[in-house]
């Protein structure tokens, strides 16, 4: 009986979500000279992230140029086992891949169903954040040689109050 209790406790501890390896809480401003967004069409030269990381969720407010701020709350879930399908509809999730925070969501942009994935990593001194973004258009068909996705890597500096 004692062995069953010990094994059950071990399984519960093993399946419990890992502690947060990094804290992204704060305000972040894109460094255009070290980012890819300024080279895309149309160029994005200004972007800020405001992140609140607490408990079982992460709130992210993203402002790009003069656009309206987009606010999204991501529940923190266990890391999906590959191959995990991209989120659909209005599904959102955040999870840890080692020290990287991955935030995924589904949605609609200009009438098109899309899935997005953002992987955030902090520098060793926690003064910079790298964001790798992937957006996939889920239109249901493919053409040879045509891309239904876009990816970009941007670097942000922590904004000190």
Keywords summarizing the entry:
161 residues, disordered N terminus, mainly beta, globular, 1 helix, Lipocalin
Overview of this structure, please?
This protein is mainly beta and 161 residues long. It has a single domain (20-159), classed as Calycin beta-barrel core domain (Lipocalin, Beta Barrel), CATH 2.40.128. It has one helix at 2-15; strands at residues 26-30, 47-54, 57-64, 70-75, 92-97, 100-109, 112-122, 128-137, 149-159. A nine-stranded antiparallel β-sheet has the order 4-3-2-1-9-8-7-6-5, with no helix packed on it. The model is unreliable at 1-18 (pLDDT under 50).
CATH topology: the name is: Lipocalin
Number of strands: 9
- Please give the largest β-sheet: 9 strands, antiparallel
Instruction: Spell out the CATH superfamily.
Output: Calycin beta-barrel core domain
Q: What multimeric state do the chains show? A: single chain
Distance between the termini: 56 Å
Number of helices: 1
> Roughly what percent helix?
under 10%
Number of domains: 1
Which class do the helix and strand fractions yield? mainly beta
Radius of gyration (Å): 18 Å
Strand order of the largest sheet: 4-3-2-1-9-8-7-6-5
Under the CATH scheme, the architecture is: Beta Barrel
H and E string: HEEEEEEEEE
SSE diagram, text form:
Elements: H1 2-15, E1 26-30, E2 47-54, E3 57-64, E4 70-75, E5 92-97, E6 100-109, E7 112-122, E8 128-137, E9 149-159
Antiparallel strand pairs: 1-2, 1-9, 2-3, 3-4, 5-6, 6-7, 7-8, 8-9
